[in-house]
């Protein structure tokens, strides 16, 4: 088994979510897997880390070619613990997901699934995030299977440049038009708070909102691809320098 | 007072931190301020949002030209609540900080202070994050004062392109060599977990670690600027598409 790929998996919906367990099922026949995932849902965790509490981790399963741990921390914490404490050899790939919900466009900033692959890429590992645009806990992940296998093996074989990762989003469909390589679209969340009555009064709000696309006609974006039935693959970089602004600011500041 | 700038302020160290209160003190004579900040420290919150609990907010101060609220959520939550519930007019600028600690290089991904300005820029507002490379709660912020005033007024006067913000880091010094416009350096956190004994056993870890610079000789980075006594201004973009990878992947996938 020494030549089987070794893949680290985490997510933000928690170790019990259907998405991560479907991913384990799909990849287990073809790779050795280490799973370290949050012990409860952590949607919207972004790249957050836990600095004020210790992280509690538990081994849930250990079988030939599969070890599963839960962790009390965030998705990024899970990757840090996995890489520092639990890996048995250097992973060939780190996979985040499969997320229950859309991580395209600006959502990637809030996404714990993207937190997983951002952290992995910061540590020098090729990494791919998978998300299905369906928040339902009972979402049907089976149409994704051949695309996941294809992208995982290509990512392992070809690798990715340092400080980059892939953000892959699937529309909620039973079949797809194909794969499109995209850029992140510009969109904006609006009407994001809803007052929540409290028996003793005071200001209490639920976060909610609608995501408005700012460039719906642009056919090179992830949101366009999803709206037209394609699997959206958005190559993502961790160097967030606004390179074009550097020289402009030198003349202003 | 109608022509005074209107500035929204938040942070990740919490509304009681010395850094944000120094920022209020510095900006209050020259601008009307709305402060909505976490009710407790939220270091390492990144761009995380709170989706599983309502946010509880309280007005702590209201005086001529100053309103201060605490919020039970993350730094990004604070900005969302402020913009949806508490602004009295459109802010001219959103400021994050002053953070107690270094948010340069890869730290920007984990930073709640960068979460503040990322969220503001996603909503279309010019925004600037200030951080001092000194974690002490008693850190001395006074050397920063003229630089903050200068950068705040330039950002208001000149504005920033859509989907960008500024990440400003100050070295821990009593005076600075000047301002450098930088790119984000590549660095890597190492040895990030420390086992934490527990009376009943099991796996418990504190996050810790050391940040190793991967390109210490490059003189155009934020970490180089800080190491050489300069104020590091890193223009930051919210479009994280790895543009150079789009065409390459089109030929592979």
Give an overview of the whole structure.
- 2 copies of one chain form a homodimer.
- In chain A, strands 3-4-2-1-5-6-7-13-8 form a 9-stranded mixed beta sheet, sandwiched between helices. Chain A has a two-stranded antiparallel sheet with strand order 9-12.
- In chain A, 26% of the residues lie in helices and 29% in strands.
- In chain A, β3 (55-63) and β4 (66-71) form a beta hairpin.
- Chain A is globular.
- With 253 residues, the first copy, chain A, is α/β, with parallel strands linked by helices.
- In chain A, α2 runs parallel beside α4 (112-122).
- Chain A starts with 5 loop residues before the first strand and ends with a helix.
- The mean pLDDT of chain A is 96.
- The first copy, chain A, has 7 helices and 13 strands.
Total beta-strand segments of chain A: 13
Q: Greatest chain-chain interface?
A: A-B, 80 and 80 residues
Alpha plus pi helix count of chain A? 7
End-to-end distance of chain A: 58 Å
User: What sequence of helices (H) and strands (E) makes up the elements of chain A?
Assistant: EHEEEHEHHEHEEEEEEHEH
Strand order of the largest sheet of chain A: 3-4-2-1-5-6-7-13-8
Q: What gross morphology of chain A would you assign?
A: globular
* Fraction of residues in H or I helices of chain A: 25-40%
Which band does the percent of strand residues of chain A land in? Answer: 25-35%
Q: Which residue ranges of chain A are poorly predicted, with pLDDT under 50 across at least 5 consecutive positions? A: none
In angstroms, what is the radius of gyration of chain A?
19 Å
The secondary structure category of chain A is alpha/beta
Please, what is the oligomeric state?
homodimer
């Amino acid at each position: 088994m020494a030549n089987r790929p070794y893949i680290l998996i985490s997510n933000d919906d928690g170790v019990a979510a259907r998405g991560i367990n479907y991913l384990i099922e799909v990849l287990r026949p073809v790779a050795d897997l280490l799973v370290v995932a949050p012990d409860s849902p952590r949607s919207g965790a972004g790249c957050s880390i836990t600095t004020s509490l210790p992280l509690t981790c538990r081994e849930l399963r250990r079988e030939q070619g599969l070890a599963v741990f839960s962790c009390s921390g965030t998705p990024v914490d899970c990757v840090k613990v996995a890489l520092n404490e639990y890996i048995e050899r250097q992973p060939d790939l780190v996979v985040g997901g499969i997320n229950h919900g859309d991580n395209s466009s600006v959502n990637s900033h809030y996404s714990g699934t993207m937190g997983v692959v951002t952290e992995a890429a910061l540590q020098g590992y090729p990494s791919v995030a998978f998300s299905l645009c369906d928040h339902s806990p009972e979402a049907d992940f089976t149409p994704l299977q051949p695309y996941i296998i294809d992208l995982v093996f290509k990512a392992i074989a070809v690798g990715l440049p340092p400080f980059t990762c892939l953000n892959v989003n699937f529309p909620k469909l039973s079949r797809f038009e194909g794969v499109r390589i995209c850029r992140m679209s510009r969109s904006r969340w609006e009407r994001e708070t809803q007052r929540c009555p409290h028996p003793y009064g005071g200001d209490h709000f639920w976060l909610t909102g609608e995501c408005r696309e700012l460039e719906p006609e642009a056919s090179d974006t992830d949101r366009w691809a999803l709206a037209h039935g394609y699997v959206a693959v958005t190559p993502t970089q961790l160097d967030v320098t606004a390179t074009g602004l550097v020289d402009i600011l030198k003349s202003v500041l």
